[in-house]
């Protein structure tokens, strides 16, 4: 039976490869995560979400799975996983896995069988189609893969194309095959019976494909024709039998559809990750934010207006996006107050809050050279532009990657100021950000004014006022302000006023008179702020504050 425990929760995403290396091979691992369990308990999170740790050849850093019931050799063993799971549970921290079932690796046993012949029993586990044109060697349609090139790969052995919406080494599963759907349910049950508390479901809305792929629009896979049927079936066979959190990655989803597929009682998704707020604006290259704040907070406010029957996920960072500094707030000399201001603005919105590793330290984007990139998306882009666009194209692509590459979020966690940021005693699998001597966990744990300590305090305040954070209404304050993100959460006579400047300059905020009346308590601040809000607040660069206000 679902208790909806996640409505009170803050979830911390761990990217295992970059979190902590316990054996010195340069790659993060499960024993390393276990070693840092007390760190996460100290921070005060309620759950962790692990990016994939299954067996994988690592074409897409674990999102290409070759065995769903085993652990990647570099990460450890199933015994290591069980120890880690028990350690988190003993500390009151739940554990979510990353469920990647739109596709597998081409090295999965199912696909190895599927490509052997057209009449193989596993043939229909994947999406195969004849080609077009006189020689039947043109792709069935013009769909493009997310990592570049055609979404179809020709297989000489059987003379057909298979569909891959991502890498050619990530063939899409055929969810129209009921055997595939049962396999997925069995995989989910395997992990849930171990005690896993739920799943983040990778590109889950893409699993159902149109029947006529020769004439379908690629937009038709955003939420495919049989998606609801297949998700309800998966809930009946697995997910709905446990007290789970099921959050879906939903690229391309719009607000009305999100309300529909997160509705309680529909047995679809408990919540979803939309991308609208992380796709607005640009990342600035020189430590100053350039996101249009008024547009950005308007998007956030719209997604705060989910109906009572739905629930939302709120986040600024994950493994697929560059760091929020300097995207949404300045970095450079203002990094510390800016990171705190972003923290307050995130943690007091309505919804389950998700933090990404290093966000609690104020980690920033890294300065990469061409050879430093490790992500398939980055490497494919550099390869293709060199091949087809020449030196100018390569220059433009490198400028793009400096701002947008997924690699920025995947640099090793910065634990201390020793070699390799304390991440490994070996050679790290990818570049460590050179600012680790300034930004690291050891220094921030000891500093009462650090970003980490602010996150810890903010999480404690969030728990203390969880009724307001969970159930209160959300309204923007001074909505037209281009420098300040301010809002009020209201539940009966109780209110939380959150004011966050994201400006590198002094700013002002107009506060409604009714919020300046009543009994006010200043709960959080990152610089000196008045004990009670005023109708005209003067804010230092990146200043933030949270007040609790009760009617007299």
From TrEMBL:
Entry's Gene Ontology molecular function annotations: alpha-amylase activity
Keyword Magnesium: no
Assigned keywords, A-Z: Glycosidase, Hydrolase
Pfam families reported for this sequence: Alpha-amylase, Malt_amylase_C
Annotated GO biological process: oligosaccharide catabolic process
Domain Glycosyl hydrolase family 13 catalytic: 13-410
Family: Belongs to the glycosyl hydrolase 13 family.
Protein name per Swiss-Prot or TrEMBL: Alpha-glucosidase
């Amino acid at each position: 039976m679902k208790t909806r425990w996640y409505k009170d929760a803050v979830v911390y995403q761990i990217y295992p490869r970059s979190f902590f290396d316990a054996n010195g091979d340069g790659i993060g691992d499960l024993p390393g995560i276990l070693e840092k369990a007390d760190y996460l308990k100290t921070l005060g999170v309620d759950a962790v979400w692990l990016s994939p740790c299954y067996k994988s050849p690592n074409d897409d850093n674990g999102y290409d799975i070759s065995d769903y019931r085993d652990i990647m050799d570099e990460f450890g063993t199933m015994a290591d996983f069980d120890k880690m799971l028990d350690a988190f549970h003993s500390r009151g921290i739940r554990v979510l896995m990353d469920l990647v079932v739109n596709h597998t690796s081409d090295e999965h046993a199912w696909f190895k069988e599927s490509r052997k012949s057209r009449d193989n029993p596993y043939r229909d586990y994947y999406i195969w189609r004849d080609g077009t044109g006189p020689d039947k060697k043109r792709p069935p349609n013009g769909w493009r893969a997310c990592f570049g090139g055609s979404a179809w790969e020709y297989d000489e052995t059987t003379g057909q194309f298979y569909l891959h919406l991502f890498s050619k080494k990530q063939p899409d599963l055929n969810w129209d095959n009921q055997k595939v759907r049962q396999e997925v349910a069995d995989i989910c049950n395997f992990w849930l019976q171990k005690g896993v508390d739920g799943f983040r479901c990778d590109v889950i809305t893409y699993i159902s494909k149109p029947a006529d792929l020769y004439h379908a629009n690629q937009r038709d896979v955003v939420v495919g024709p049989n998606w609801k049927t297949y998700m309800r079936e998966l809930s009946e066979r697995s997910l709905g039998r446990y007290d789970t959190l099921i959050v879906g990655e939903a690229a391309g989803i719009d607000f009305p559809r999100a309300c529909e597929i997160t509705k309680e009682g529909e047995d679809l998704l408990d919540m979803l990750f939309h991308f609208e707020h992380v796709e607005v604006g640009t990342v600035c290259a020189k430590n100053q934010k350039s996101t249009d704040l008024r547009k950005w907070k308007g998007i956030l406010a719209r997604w705060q207006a989910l109906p009572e029957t739905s629930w939302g996920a709120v986040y600024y960072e994950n493994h697929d996006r560059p760091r929020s500094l300097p995207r949404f707030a300045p970095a450079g000399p203002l990094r510390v107050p800016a990171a705190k201001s972003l923290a307050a603005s995130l943690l007091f919105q309505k919804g389950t809050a998700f933090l990404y590793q290093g966000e609690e330290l104020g980690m920033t984007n890294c300065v990469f050279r061409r050879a430093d990139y490790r992500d398939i998306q980055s490497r494919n882009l550099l390869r293709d532009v060199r091949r087809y666009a020449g030196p100018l194209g390569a220059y433009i692509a490198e400028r793009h990657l400096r701002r947008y590459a997924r690699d920025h979020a995947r640099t090793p966690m910065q634990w201390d100021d020793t070699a390799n940021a304390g991440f490994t005693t070996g050679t790290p699998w990818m570049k460590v950000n050179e600012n680790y001597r300034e930004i690291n966990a050891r220094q921030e744990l000891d500093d009462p004014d650090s970003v980490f300590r602010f996150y810890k305090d903010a999480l404690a305040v969030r728990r203390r006022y969880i009724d307001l954070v969970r159930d209160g209404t959300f309204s923007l304050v001074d909505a037209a302000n281009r420098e300040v993100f301010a809002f009020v959460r209201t539940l009966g006579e109780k209110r939380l006023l959150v004011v966050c400047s994201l400006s590198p300059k002094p700013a002002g905020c107009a506060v409604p008179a009714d919020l300046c009346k009543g009994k006010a308590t200043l709960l959080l601040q990152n610089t000196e702020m008045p004990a009670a809000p005023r109708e005209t607040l003067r804010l230092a660069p990146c200043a933030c504050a949270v007040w609790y206000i009760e009617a007299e």
